[in-house]
């Protein structure tokens, strides 16, 4: 899959003195028709992750934060905010997410407009979800889906409440509700909205477990 002109421009703008950005730009732009494209991209992404996770000054818990943020963004069903990443990854501060994003800036992207985080290029998830291509950084979707399902269910259990939008009557049609957008946005955080929409997606990919069954019953 070739990068779009806007993606190429973005990579070029962000390269600056960082060689890894220039390398990313070069490989993604020039290897789409090469017989060695997979090998070159795989080596590039492996080098990026090795640099991020084997930083000499980084503590063990910081490296674990980087892995959690990476997997959370990889398996998220849509671009998500830093605050949502923190909750889904089980991190107690958005600052821990920002730290990880700084190290992962060659593979993850935070939109300047929406501030939402996603993978920088579609080739990255393809590599990370293939054990043959991404060792030793392979992301096993089943394991992290269990964590994401548990976190989504925990958010719903903590934040959902009866008549959360404070409607005066349940007999009023949706299109007749005054300031419907404001009533929804104010009590429903982006994290709760994500959890409510996608908990089933993550649950479906997770292995059956007593813990997940307990969480599901608690929410239902």
Defining traits:
2 domains, mainly alpha, two-stranded antiparallel sheet, 220 residues
Structure in words:
This is Vegetative incompatibility protein HET-E-1. It comes from Rhizoctonia solani AG-3 Rhs1AP. The protein is mostly helical and 220 residues long. It has two domains: 5-134; 141-219, no CATH class. Helices cover 61% and strands 3% of the residues. It contains twelve helices and two strands. The chain has helices at residues 5-15, 19-30, 37-53, 60-75, 82-89, 94-103, 123-128, 131-134, 141-159, 180-185, 190-205, 210-219, and strands spanning 108-110, 117-119. A two-stranded antiparallel ribbon has the order 1-2. Helix 1 packs antiparallel against helix 2 (19-30), helix 2 (19-30) packs antiparallel against helix 3 (37-53) and helix 5 (82-89) packs across helix 6 (94-103). It is globular and about 60 Å long. The model has no long low-confidence stretch (mean pLDDT 81).
Break the fold down into its secondary structure elements and pairings:
Blueprint: H1 5-15, H2 19-30, H3 37-53, H4 60-75, H5 82-89, H6 94-103, E1 108-110, E2 117-119, H7 123-128, H8 131-134, H9 141-159, H10 180-185, H11 190-205, H12 210-219
Antiparallel strand pairs: 1-2
Protein name: Vegetative incompatibility protein HET-E-1
């Amino acid at each position: 899959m070739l990068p779009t002109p806007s993606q190429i421009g973005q990579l070029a703008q962000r390269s600056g003195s960082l060689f890894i950005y220039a390398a990313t730009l070069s490989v993604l732009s020039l290897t789409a028709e090469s017989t060695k494209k997979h090998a070159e991209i795989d080596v590039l992404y492996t080098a990026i992750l090795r640099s991020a996770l084997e930083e000499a000054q980084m503590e063990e818990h910081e490296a674990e934060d980087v892995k959690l943020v990476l997997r959370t963004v990889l398996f998220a069903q849509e671009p998500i905010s830093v605050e949502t990443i923190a909750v889904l990854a089980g991190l107690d501060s958005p600052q821990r997410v920002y730290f990880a994003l700084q190290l992962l800036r060659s593979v993850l992207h935070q939109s300047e407009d929406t501030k939402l985080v996603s993978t920088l290029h579609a080739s990255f998830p393809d590599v990370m979800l293939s054990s043959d291509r991404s060792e030793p950084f392979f992301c096993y979707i089943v394991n992290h889906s269990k964590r994401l399902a548990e976190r989504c269910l925990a958010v719903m259990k903590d934040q959902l409440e009866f008549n959360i939008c404070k409607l005066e009557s349940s007999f009023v049609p949706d299109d007749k509700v005054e300031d419907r957008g404001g009533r929804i946005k104010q009590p429903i955080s982006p994290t709760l909205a994500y959890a409510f929409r996608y908990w089933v997606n993550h649950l479906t990919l997770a292995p059956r477990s007593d813990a997940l069954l307990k969480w599901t019953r608690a929410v239902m």
